[in-house]
Amino acid sequence: MDNLPLHRSILAVDMERSTSPLRTNPIKGELRGHVYRMLGQAMAHAGIGPRQCDPFEDRGDGVLALIQPDDGVPKTYLLSRLIPELARQLVDYNLSLPPDEWPRRGLRLRAVVHAGEIHRDPYGYFGEALDVACRLLDARPLKKCLENVPAPLVLVVSEEIYQTIVKHGYDGISPETYQPDVRVKVAGRRRQGWIHVPTEALRLAAEDPHFTTLPNRNPSAA
C-alpha cells in the first residue's frame, strides 16, 4: 500500500482519572466497555456507521475514531449531534450509579475533534494531524476544565474546526460557547484549541443534588 495521506475527521476521547487506585483492572475493563458502547451509540445517532468510520483504535483509557469524508455526514454532525448525545449518555449513566459507587465507576471524558491528513500502515494510524489532536486532548487547560464543571464531558476543537465549522454557527452549534483556552506546540507551530462544555449536559448534571460527590470532586479518587 502506498503510504499516501488520507483525509479524516478525527475524534478521540479519554477517561478522566483512569489510573485512580480505586479503579481495579476489572472496573477499568467495565468502564472501557461503557465508553465503546456509548461512543458507538452516539456515532449511530449522528448517522455514522461502519461504512463512514475506520476501525476504532484503542488508547487504553480512551478511543480514537477516524471518520471518512461523506456528504451524508458533514463535520457539523460531530458537534451538533454526536457530542451532545455522548454527553447525555454519560449524564444518564452517572446518575444511575449509587453515590458510593461514583468514585470507582463514575465516568467522565475529555474529547477532541480535529480534521486533517492521516497515514496508515500495518501498525496503525499516524501523522501530524493525529499529533495535534492528541496534544489538544491531553492539554492541561482541558483537564482543569473537566475538574471544575459538573458536566461529565468537555470538548476541545482545533483551530481548523473552529474556523471552518464553529464560528459560522451552523444549526445546533453556538460559537459563543467555545472559548480559546488551549495552546499547544506541535511540529514547531503553536496550535490553538477551543474548549466547549455541552450545555444540556451541564444543565442536567448541575440539577442533580449529588453532583458535588462526582469522582473529580472526591478526594479518594485522586
Summarize this structure briefly.
By secondary structure, the protein is of the alpha+beta class. Helix content is 36%, strand content 26%. Helix 1 crosses helix 2 and helix 2 runs parallel beside helix 7.
Could you characterize what this model shows?
Strands 1, 2, 3, 4, 5, 6, 7 and 8 form an eight-stranded mixed β-sheet that branches. This protein is 36% helix and 26% strand. The model is unreliable at 213-222 (pLDDT under 50). It starts with 5 loop residues before the first strand and ends in a 15-residue tail after the last helix. The chain contains seven helices and eight strands, in the order βαββααββααβαββα. With 222 residues, the chain is α+β, with helices and mostly antiparallel strands. It is globular and about 50 Å long. The longest helix is centred in the N-terminal third of the chain and has 21 residues, at 25-45. Helix 1 (25-45) crosses helix 2 (76-96) and helix 2 (76-96) packs parallel to helix 7. The chain has helices at residues 25-45, 76-96, 102-105, 128-137, 140-147, 159-164, 199-207, and strands at 6-15, 57-58, 62-67, 109-121, 124-126, 153-158, 178-186, 189-196.
